[in-house]
Amino acid sequence: MDKSKGSTWITIICIIIGIMIALQMKSIGNLGGLVTTQRADEMLIEINEMEKENEKLIQKVNELENSISVFENQAADNNEVVEKMLKDANMAKAQAGYTDLVGPGVLIALDYTDDDGFDPFTFNSELLLLLVNELNASGAEAISINGERIVNTSEIRLAGNHININGKKNAYPFVFKVIGDSKTLSSALNIRGGIFDLLELNYIEVTLEESDKLTVPRYNGTLNFTHAKPVEK
Asked: Which of 136, 174, 198, 207 is most buried when burial is the number of CB atoms within 10 A of its CB?
């Protein structure tokens, strides 16, 4: 056989084998993608079911708390000691964040409107914490961010390309509802060289509105003490 013809046939066979291998790898790749997509759909269904179940549990808790309130009020009608205990308990619940609160205060909105792909909140996520600290130092009695009540165990931290608040994904604009003396809060936040100036230096747009009546929602999480225990007297 002519050597040149033999080389040609070998080349053709190699090309055919290469094409077959490529097609086989492509089929395997497509199969893997299909399995991944199916699993993602299954996980999405599971997450949706868990969210629905969580909503049902929250609704059930609210119903039980309403029933407890009825029993407590009935008991307090005939006992001054019980009435005082209930007032103390309700105050403790309010301070812990487990009740909706209403009162005067300020409404603060933080936003970034430039369409350039930059996110100043993820770039400087600690700015939200600084604002919360300034609000607390200025006499804030209750704070919520995008509907999330801030309590002593609340976390505000960077999680990938978004901000987690109370374990829930949040992104700008961030709306703060703050109950307290509106004049005191406004003056403290607008002080020269203060927190609002710092936010604006980081390209964050700030608006503040004083209000005679704001509602700060309750905290919907749970506070668990595994290691801490009351001191026995």
From this structure: 174
